[in-house]
Amino acid sequence: MSICRVCSGAVREFFDFGLQPLSSAFVDPAGVDDEYFFPLSIGVCQSCTMVQLLTPAPRGQASHEGYPYHSSGSRVMHKHFQQLAHRLLETELSGPDPFIVEIGYNDGVVLKTVRDAGVRHLGVEPTGRGAVRVHSAFFNAGSAAEILASEGPADVVYAANTICEVAEIAEIFEGLKVLLAPDGVLVFEDPYLGEILERTAFDQIYDEHFYFFSASAVSGMAERFGFALVDVEHLPVHGGQIRYTIARRDRRRPTQAVADLLAREREQRLVEPEKLQAFATAVDRIRDDLLELLTRLRAEGKRVVGYGATAKSATVTNYFGIGPDLVPFVCDSTPSKQGLVTPGSHIPVRPPADFADPYPDYALLFAWNHAEEIMAKERAFRDAGGQWILYVPEVHVL
Ligand code: DWN
Ligand code: ZN
Questions:
Q1: Type and span of the H or E element at 158
Q2: Domain Methyltransferase putative zinc binding: where (predicted)?
Q3: Could you list which residues have their CB under 5 Å from ion ligand 2?
Q4: Do 89 and 166 fall within a single domain?
């Protein structure tokens, strides 16, 4: 048991991945003896139903300058963020002299789009960088007060793939209390618990993802901190996410979409023990099936290469015990990952050009959330007789 970071209730574990490395800590092949590991296990709060890790990884890992993830490395994601920015410009940011703050703005697609529309904007991140205006800090009551003093209240505070990473989430709400305009909103998008459980997307569970949100847990959390969940939107990206809109209490009427999703979650009995037990069983079935397949292919002399050195793949390779003996290398378009080896599992990362040189018999698609985009880009692999191996929602070959 551990203590819930939202409500101080008891968190009951439902899956233990054992010791895991930090998912973005790609290592120089010479430095593999010096890696940091932490206990990765996930549980559900018996009081507020928030699903969360039992032990947070050290804070700030995802914020250092060398952080190797760039959201616009995917064409689909680039477009996704541009569309969101345009939508905000037409709605929340359409009043006089609007102001948007983005927490953890990554490579700044949203902020650059609003900047180009002449809208006041600010990125908040401990190691602020890039072509947008930034405030270098964690988002909390202190930094929110500084921003309020210099810029005035925010109409929108936005965050993608960030809020779920902040274990001390009360700090976010304390900052919102200070900075948000009376009718301002927090808009954030993160992986959806419902889809993680339904599709056995167990590899969304790694050091950087602390919370696994459902609409009901987010609604309860918002109320606890003096806010309300007023809108939800399903997003098809990253294997299924929800975009939540939070307003100050009693300022906005929640949409029908909120009522519908809350009702569906009740119907699905999302965090009931049987559901969580079924998830645990399904993860171990995927492990057995994938190891059986990879071992058989190796025995048959087939070449298997990994595709996408994702943060998610740290859980897959380390929990399953997949190393370079089964997957000799993984190709990835991120230059800062190339030449290094994957955290814990030590699979060399190589540029995508190596994928075709020559094509392997099978490609294990770690970046399954970008399947459509990657398979379209790598059509020639299929044409040459290559096959994709996927493991979500179960092991299958395409
Ligand atoms: O939440 C998070 C998500 C949004 O991004 C972070 N905590 C960390 C990161 O997680 P991830 O590494 O699992 O994200 P992706 O988007 O699944 O990573 C895709 C990887 O695949 C990247 O390293 C880039 C690579 N890639 C590629 O080699 N060719 C991606 C595409 C689209 C490609 O065509
Ligand atoms: Zn709780």
A1: strand 154-160
A2: 4-59
A3: 4, 6-7, 9, 45, 47-48, 50
A4: yes
